[in-house]
Amino acid sequence: MTADRNLRRSPLHGVRDRLATLSGAITVAEVPFLAQINLRITRRSEPRPGGSTSDGDVDVLWLGPDEFLVVGPPGSEQRLISAYSGPEASVVDVSAQRTALDLDGPGVRELLAFGCSIDLHPRVFAVGDCAQTVLAHTPVVLQRRMSGFRVLVRSSFAAHLAAWILDASPDLTAGH
Amino acid sequence: MMLIPCPWCGPRDESEFHYGGQAGVAYPADPAALSDAEWARYLFFRDNPKGPFRERWSHSAGCRRWFSLVRDTVTNEVLS
Amino acid sequence: MTQPYRLERGGLVDRDTPLSFRFDGREYQGFRGDTLASALLANGVLRVADSLRLGRPRGVFSAGIEEPNAIVQIEEPFPEPMLTATTVELYGGLVARSLRGHGRLAGDPDPARYDSTHAHCDVLVIGAGPAGLAAAATAASSGARVILLDDQPRPGGSLLGTGEHLDWVDTVAAELAAAPETRVLTRTTAFGYYDDNHVIAVQRRTGHLGALAPAHLSREGVWRIRARQVVLATGAHERSLAFADNDRPGVMLAGAARTYVNRYGVLPGRRAVVLTTNDSAYAAARDLAAAGVEIATIADLRPGVQNGEALPGWAVARVHGEERVSAVTLRSPDGAGREVDADLLLVSGGWNPVGALYSQAGGRLAYDPELGAFRPDGGCRQNLFVAGAAGGSYHLGVCLAEGAAMGGRAADAAGFTARGIVLPEAADPAGTPPAAVWTLPGGDPAVQFADLQRDVTVADLARATGTGMRSVEHVKRYTTAGTAHDQGRTGGTLTSGVVAELLGVEVGALGTTTFRPPYAPVSFAALAGRDRGMLFDPVRVTALHGRHESHGALFENVGQWKRPWYYPRDGEDMAGAVLRECRAAREGVAMMDASTLGKIDVQGPDAGDFLDRLYTNMISTLKPGAIRYGVMCRPDGMVFDDGTVIRLTDERFLVTTTTGNAAAVLDWMEEWLQTEWPELRVRCTSVTEHWATVALVGPRSRDVLAAVAPGLDVSRAGFGFMTWRDTEVAGLSARVCRISFSGELAYEINVSWWDALTLWEALLAAGAAHGITPYGTETMHVLRAEKGYPIIGQDTDGTVTPHDLGLGWAVSKKKADFIGKRSFTRTDTARPDRKQLVGLLPDDGGLLPEGAHLVTAAPQRVLGHVTSSYRSAALGRTFALALLRGGRDLIGQTVWATLDDGLVPVTVTGSVLYDPEGTRRDG
């Protein structure tokens, strides 16, 4: 018996169309099926605490003093596991643990401020900075990118977060 | 809402943290060697000062690291 | 003219926008820019409410948030109780009525949206009067991020009431609005000042638009502002004096009357008597006279004052008129009386710096005898500065200079350097110092009001001190003075003054009451924001949630998770559905979404040792490929969690936790690793949502698995109980565990979250011939309870040991130590008569309510309670689990369950009621 691959589902599969209707103040898009590796290793200096690094198609996000999240394109799990495994390292495939939402637009900071207590002003939270924090009562990893923010949200919370974004969007004043 | 200085992530809202009670209460090296009274003291007794108190916090919504700080229990000022 | 008390010109109202409104059933007109109070005054309506306790007529007393009297109910567009007419902005179609104390909540849900936002700044300035504007402009000149907030619709503060320097106000406001890092929030009241400069404010966004408010925008929003530095420029409130009938409509604060004339172009009366302790009332009298109010006389309570036509040392002895002031009897220092006709009595008993936020911030308010008021003592531990009248500076020039200075210091403290700003010229005339006066002599103390909103009089305060109370805090609680929703803004200091007089002590020694949030009333809707309905708390769903919905599942909340509870078919009730699902699991094949179980990857050279320390049983002896059930306790020996431990490799395990405890167990592991055993080389990572898990249960489960996993040896010998295999299932990478939470032959199949639907559909298809049946948590509970498997958190409550649960077999006797071990030999945990988990069979076949108490027959002694109770398809009867004192010694005996309508006999049994020999797990 073989699988029907058309049944593969990212956590926000069901709300993709509704998120796509947002435009103007914010745009929101799920980036599904990213490969994600939790890397635990001591004595690694990059990225610095609260930062992330990008190398080609792979981002490394700081999660804790010995903990990093390696994010690569869909299907790159084995490549990342091989690249980061080592005697002092522990590597866990967590690809489906979280899904990614890319948020952009002139209202994106205003949107995040509705539900996130940390200061996201570019003086404080610059491009490349990342934080594990709470957004809409939901644990997230937040990364500031060249344009907008990436929110990595636990798969079980993703639908709640999407509903929260859709509910908040009428109140955004930016871009109007 | 206190602002608690996580040694790794910087100041964050108190709601991102779990409180761990009095710091410096070590798990006894050999629990079996303790009397019931001594073991009960470890389990159930903690200081409750009015003023500076060294206590444990975990940045549970952030880097998940445990750390200690001294807080004035009257004013909530973090002293160190 | 429809507004007989409206001036021909002047004021900041928009005369081109007339607005119609109704009050107490009558139609009136006002202008945009009015408050309900100013519009009522313009129409000659002064009496707006009856007092709470005594029902005395009351009029508009102030022009702002300090209002104690003018409490109104808004009826349309949406009912809102207990608003002050002095803060309700007028809009067309407003319908309001007067209130006697208590308002009425709307019967319907509020259709408006509310929200809440977080903000951060270097300098937060609270109050946009002269000091606040100067502070904000100075701070903004440094490049610092500045937030300026004010409760009025426009900046200006007291200048709006005095009409001075409005050009400067407009210029500064425009500059601030254009500054890139500055935000000006009007109609915004800071109501809470918490630790670490966390200031909470509510912004009224669309309420002033009435029915024209856009429905998609939030009506109000709460701002949670974290400021590095704060400048409090909250100004001062004028206070009253205690004299007989000082509550009559027409008695008004002098500064408020000035505001009605200058800001709203409204005359509060035609002929006024002024009573004052300080110079500020003279400016009010001048402005009113210029607007056409006849100033009959000024009684100045300072005996030595030399000020034109004022009567030095004169006081008010009586106020005539009940519905409205008609005349005032004045008394000279030597006792001579004089009755003066007037429809307005303007009072200035001095000014109180608004210190509520300073007090909330942890600062102390100290009495300043020269000021005759309590003001910030300057010793607050938070990063704040006080400027202007909030600190007791009442001259405009001083306020402006202080504002600029404090704004600059705040920016400096935040690491910025301010440039200077241009301040308007303000001459501060030398004057006569104020006098601190509280009660005026003569008159009936029972009508000398200290707190207008609570109807607390000098007589009430005397009764309090007469009972022996010496603390103003006690007097407050005894008399309720200061506890109304105006929080004693006009009456609090007066109350302290009167009590000090009664006790014969200094006001400063007596002190004032403590201020607590909220400074001003704030609606629950605003506090809730968008955390309502489905957004109140995050709802967590599994990858299969949509599929469960299409199966028609009803859901149960398990922590934040939604789990399928049962899957009713047409016309089926819960009992019927659960019996059918149970039967399928025991007789055929059934499947359940078990994805919510917590999953933690534990790896490292010391992982086995670490798990030995956490679990009560031995884990390190587990072979790779095998699975063991484990129990975790707290150090006090009480069960904390349970689950399975899978050994993946020598140095790697996967542990499962209960659904509700996944985060707590991971935190628990990190706590011990980081704080007690840092030498252990172990790392723990949550993979709860990486995997989706489907439990495949029942005698036919092997057949179904064989069909979807052709590469897997599913034979009894080839795939033993409590082992796992990595294999392909339905073409997916999968991990299959042979474990059972029902006693039946069963498997748990794990695939990526993304592939859950693929797996589910494949199992449905492969099991169709066997009647495969999806089941929910209720059936899971019945199946496990029939086997006596406890559910942590349902059959336990933090006071239950593994031995109490009959899990003594899972407690290692070989290990030197593990968390909880020492506690098992404590006197209390070793007692033989502890509550133990047992089974119950109700003699009458009824279903016992969970939580029912269990007692002995006579005398009735409580033995324990029912923890789980179900109908069993397999047993053909109802049964329950219970925690029962000395329960295992009571097996075979009868105890009694207490129900609403009496006692029901139940027979105690062992906890394993179904297949006690365990013959079914291998199929």
TrEMBL record, chain A:
InterPro entries listed in its UniProt record: SoxG, TrmE/GcvT-like
Domain of life: Bacteria
Protein's name in the database: Sarcosine oxidase subunit gamma
Organism lineage string: Bacteria, Bacillati, Actinomycetota, Actinomycetes, Micromonosporales
TrEMBL record, chain B:
Stored Pfam families: SoxD
GO molecular function terms attached to this record: sarcosine oxidase activity
Database matches in InterPro entries: SoxD, SoxD_sf
Any one biological process term the GO annotation gives: tetrahydrofolate metabolic process
Gene3D superfamilies: Folate-binding superfamily (3.30.2270.10)
Protein name: Sarcosine oxidase subunit delta
Origin species: Actinoplanes xinjiangensis
Source organism phylogeny: Bacteria, Bacillati, Actinomycetota, Actinomycetes, Micromonosporales
From TrEMBL, chain C:
One Pfam entry name: GCV_T_C
Domain of life according to the entry: Bacteria
The SoxA A3 domain, residue ranges: 448-530
One example GO MF annotation: oxidoreductase activity
Residues of the FAD/NAD(P)-binding domain: 122-264
Domain GCVT N-terminal: 544-815
Keywords of this entry: Oxidoreductase
Domain spans labelled Aminomethyltransferase C-terminal: 835-915
SUPFAM superfamilies named in the record: Aminomethyltransferase beta-barrel domain, FAD/NAD(P)-binding domain, Folate-binding domain
Family: Belongs to the GcvT family.
Protein name stated in the entry: Sarcosine oxidase subunit alpha
Record organism: Actinoplanes xinjiangensis
